[in-house]
Amino acid sequence: MLEKMEILDVEKLIGDFEVMTKDAENVQRQTLKMILEENGCAEYLQNMGLNGRTDPESFKACVPLVTHKDLESYIQRVADGAFSPILTRKPITTISLSSGTTQGKPKFVPFNDELMETTLQIYRTSFAFRNREFPIENGKALQFIYSSKQSKTKGGLFAGTATTNVFRNSQFKKAMTAMQSECCSPDEVIFGPDFHQSLYCHLLCGLIFHEEIQLISSTFAHSIVLAFRTFEKVWEELCDDIREGVLTSRITLPSVRSAMAKLLKPNPELADLIENKCSRLSHWYGLIPELFPNVKYIYGIMTGSMEPYLKKLRHYAADVPLISADYGSSEGWIGANINPSLPPESTTYAVLPNIGYFEFIPLKENVEEHMQENGNVSFLSTVPKPVGLTEVKVGEEYEVIITSFAGLYRYRLGDVVKVMGFHNSTPELKFVCRRNLMLTINIDKNTEKDLQLAVEEAAKLIAEEKLEVIDFSSNVDVSTDPGHYVIFWEISGEVSDEVLKECCNCLDRSFVDAGYVSSRKVNAIGPLELRVVWKGTFHKILDHYLGLGAVISQFKTPRCVGPTNNKVLQILCDNVVKNYFSTAF
Ligand code: AMP
Questions:
Q1: pLDDT in tens, 96-131
Q2: What is the full DSSP assignment across 483-535?
Q3: What percent of the chain has pLDDT over 90?
Q4: What predicted TM-score, i.e. pTM, was given to this entire model?
Q5: How far is CA 134 from CA 130, 318, 400, in A?
Q6: Taking residues 260-284, what's their average pLDDT?
């Protein structure tokens, strides 16, 4: 009876969403009013001269657009335990460390109950739409989730990654139960301090409950691929554990061992079953449905920098649907995936108009391009003129600006999105890329997406030999004259020099940006260099970030390693096996 009461009313959630999105403009006004009324007394807003006004026009006129850098000193004072209200009226008690894989270091952002509530609202909304199309029965979820230890800031605030703050919040578990998505692993595994040990135990728990598993998920799809790549290496050990009912000695943490001992009983039949299944598979194709016969779908963020992992995920998943999770950041949530039957490549996110106040900087109109006599492009005006949520235009690209319930006002998130359509009056956004991730030497501009497309194209040449690019990154090398693009590849096996030379040429040709092509033709940019790295190099990068306190749940491989990211560049450069220069131009 209790269980029934806890289950979410999916139709009501969808009904509420429909009502709210039909009136998005008004809801945005109300949301801004609530944020400003609540926090108007905070020092940051007091200095802006709003004098109690809460309308969007005054807000935009008084409050400047900011980046994280502009707010750093305020957030630091919050973290140091300042007594007066600085960014919000109520004291901030928790700090999120954003994954920081793009800047080379984690950054602090405020986290509070209101942010937790909006997180749950997004989770519930997309669950409602998902469950209508892919209903799950009472069972368990194999969730590859990990949580870093919460530390304390100088001022005594809890600090952890945003996912840690969410997973550790008492509301999280209740919400997962209500969504019939309870994690099959015990808390000791989720909150264990050693990622490798937690991953092994997640796999083991999944196998123990293999018939009950209804869905497999993680925050970002990368963790799911990593989990099954690991499974390929440790499956025999997992089977031994299940056969004997004794956990491998590689799990050394006493809390994890004792939690696992409660679940692990000798089960030779299950061990035989898994062994049979594994030995019958060809190249591990369809591993997921083989192991988990009742799995309904695979869930995690699969767009943006996660797209390169989709091929491998599909290989493991066979015909199990892949559904991308929602769109948000440590700074705040933005949109929910309300069309779960679309493949991840076409996923859009409908903005929830009551979880923050949103503005969008049009990328086209803000840049007046002027052709100079020599044909170079210069940027004369880059003054951003943001538009409101309901004013965006279909087909246009924008940079997202958030005003949140957690003390960020007109904050440039740095993400580029494209408006694909509207759901009622709220836009449906496609994630395009991080704005600052750009390969550029002179007039060329290539984004993360352009890099991804080039890598996909060139990877086709090694796919013919049944090999794949496990992971990749890039760097602009301006130590040579002229500077050139460097692409790092980790490959799943041996490839001949001849094919790799062709891959290198193909990468060079695949950057079709006019600035790049014209610069290459006149040698203003040098030949692209492909550097192949040892197997396991990207794992070293992951370990490096884990060492910095990042958690795997939020990890995104840095696709472009800038000068601020010395250490990662060093790992890449130290592990180069061979390199090739393009002869495409
Ligand atoms: P973090 O601050 O570590 O939580 O990372 C947030 C960033 O991850 C966002 O600003 C996006 O760049 C990226 N991200 C989050 N959700 C998605 C999504 N659904 N699709 C693509 N990228 C996403």
A1: 887 554 344 568 899 999 999 999 999 999 999 999
A2: -EEEEEEEESS---HHHHHHHHHHHHHH---HHHHHHHHTTSSPPPEEEEE-T
A3: 71
A4: 0.84
A5: 6, 17, 31
A6: 97
Alpha helices in 214-349 (DSSP H): 221-244, 254-261, 268-280, 287-291, 310-317
Nearest CA to ligand 1 atom 20: 303
Nearest protein Cα to ligand 1, atom 16: 327
Count other C-beta atoms under 10 Å from residue 497's C-beta.
Answer: 9
The distance of Cα 205 from the centroid of its chain, to the nearest Å, equals 25
pLDDT band at 177 (very low <50, low <70, confident <90, very high): confident
Do 453 and 439 contact (CB within 8 A), yes or no?
A: no
pLDDT, tens digit, for every residue of 208-227?
Answer: 999 999 999 999 999 999 99
Q: Quote the mean pLDDT of the chain.
A: 90
State which ligand 1 atom lies nearest to the alpha carbon of 324: 19
Contact 529, 579 (CB under 8 A): yes
User: 328 in ligand 1 pocket by Cβ < 6 Å?
Assistant: yes
Nearest to 222 by CA among 584, 460, 558: 558
Q: Which amino acid is at 174?
A: K
Helix 195-208 crosses helix 254-261 at what angle (to 10 degrees)?
0
565 lines ligand 1 (CB under 6 A): no
Q: Is 419 helix (H, G, I), strand (E, B) or coil?
A: strand
Average pLDDT rounded to a whole number, residues 271-285: 96
Task: Give me the DSSP letters along 162-175.
Answer: HHHHHHHSHHHHHH
State if residue 162 touches ligand 1 by the CB under 6 angstroms criterion: yes
